[in-house]
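Saturday, quiet lab. Running sequence design on the structure tokens for the scaffold JK sent over.
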């Protein structure tokens, strides 16, 4: 599996290159944001490890640029620990967020989890409800044949529900899926994103029949 490390700290890159190579990963590196985008286009990595504070385009700009043409999984590896930085990165399209310093075992576990998630899109990957079709493989939603634009966070929430149709998905599960930890306080975020999804996908958002709330527990997608 090929990894692209985008970080302007040569010591960090060297340490990660040695560690990840020892675990069987093929590692390439870029020292600034512009080089990261070019390297991703040239080498087609399986996963990108991305620092936020880089010269020539910061990490958020890199994520936004990459998401214009690729769904390559992105793990942000950053010393920024504020919840705002994490939310901004995930909303821009990152798949996970690891704060520095970190344990190598944790990073390896997250790499394995992302690899499994990417591989799982290879089978049956279309879910339909009402006049909505969710293509999990293409990461695309259509309604009555027209494409629906979702933000990266809206997509992540819908994707997780669509992978478990009919099942109760707890708030804790969604918080971990979207923000990478169960410890993040909900603070109304999940209700906000669910409300936005209903406006875009339900015929009557105020009386949903597919995107349901299970009071005190979580949400359920009924197909």
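Result came back. Writing it out in full:
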């Amino acid at each position: 599996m090929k990894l692209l490390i985008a970080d302007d700290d040569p010591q960090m890159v060297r340490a990660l290159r040695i560690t990840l190579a020892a675990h069987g990963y093929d590692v390439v590196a870029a020292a600034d944001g512009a080089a990261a985008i070019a390297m991703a286009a040239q080498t087609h990595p399986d996963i990108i490890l991305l620092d936020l504070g880089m010269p020539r385009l910061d990490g958020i700009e890199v994520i936004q640029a990459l998401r214009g043409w690729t769904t390559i999984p992105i793990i942000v590896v950053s010393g920024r620990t504020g919840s705002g930085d994490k939310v901004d990165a995930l909303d821009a399209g990152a798949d996970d967020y690891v704060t520095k310093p970190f344990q190598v075992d944790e990073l390896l576990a997250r790499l394995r989890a992302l690899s499994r998630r990417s591989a799982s899109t290879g089978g049956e990957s279309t879910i339909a409800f009402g006049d909505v079709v969710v293509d999990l493989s293409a990461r695309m939603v259509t309604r009555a044949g027209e494409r629906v634009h979702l933000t990266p966070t809206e997509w992540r929430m819908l994707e997780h529900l669509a992978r478990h149709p009919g099942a109760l998905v707890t708030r804790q599960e969604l918080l971990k899926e979207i923000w990478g930890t169960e410890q993040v306080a909900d603070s109304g975020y999940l209700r906000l994103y669910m409300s936005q999804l209903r406006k875009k996908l339900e015929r009557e958002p105020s009386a949903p029949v597919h995107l349901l709330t299970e009071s005190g527990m979580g949400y359920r997608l009924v197909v």
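Notes for JK: The helical segments are 10-22, 33-43, 59-66, 83-92, 104-119, 152-162, 171-179, 189-201. The chain has a mean pLDDT of 86. Ask whether to fix the surface positions before the next round.
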